[in-house]
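Sequence and structure are no longer studied apart. To make this concrete, we show below a single chain and its fold as tokens.
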Amino acid sequence: MVDDERLGAVARFAGGALGITAFTIAPASSDASFRRYFRLTAGTRSWIVMDAPPDKEDLALFIKIARRFQALGLHVPEVLASDLDAGLALLGDLGHVPYLQRLNDETADRLYGDALGALVVLQTGTFADPGFLPAYDDVMLRREMALFPEWYLHRYLGRRPTDAQRAMLEAAFDGLIASALGQPQVWVHRDYHSRNLLVNDIHNPGILDFQDAVCGPITYDLVSLLKDCYIAWPRARVVDWVKGYCHLSRESGLHQCEDDVLFLEWFDRMGIQRHLKVAGIFARLHLRDGKSGYLNDLPLTMRYLKEATALYPDLGELHAFLGTLPESP
């Protein structure tokens, strides 16, 4: 049981919305934001309450996107009730087993197959309502990568890049942004990975944490899923999945790229952008927010960066610089 000043408000809101007084309430999960989740149980039924402090989180945006994604046919939590002033929402319960708990060599093809099918559905929403989500533009992409020198290099490692290193990083950022913006632009979940996908027997997967969705590069969510910062797969297997998605998404009308090599390069370069951002975010979560568990995921994140930058000669200087950094600081 969590005992804090908001827990009473959570219980009163949920009980009132459901019209019940007898229930149990317990933490369901938390994430890298200020949001928390509680599971209410009454007999054999359960619901989720999202606690999103209104001074820190935009609950109205979450609800807007949830309803739009649900209309597409995606398995996202149904919004049953909300109190925007209090920052509380009562949601349907999609279960408690994340992909991360079930992924292994035997289950990966099936689970990822379901997730990739759902991703096609999400991305096709672009055609029906192209202006619904904000653009994942140059400013946003660059701002995200700037977290790497600021939070990972400077604040976490205590290393201030030299002028030459900063110029090298900016040049690399320019190239990564050009690749991202040169891809077909579709709806992007923006955190489509094994901790935000729930295993369901019917309508798999359940999809969480989509409130930061944007319209951006077609490979972004693919990278989040297949080069997940919490689980890794052999390169050959990842390449097979990427090629399969290239064909599936093309057949679904999402792009016209018939060059598997180019699509894979989009994927690799998108991964570098994402993992630069994530390294900075993990460092910030540790230093600013006291969420130090994410430091355990930095070694894999840095490994992804070093492996991907080794593949493309124009990123040789960035690769060499990354080679001077520790994988497990």
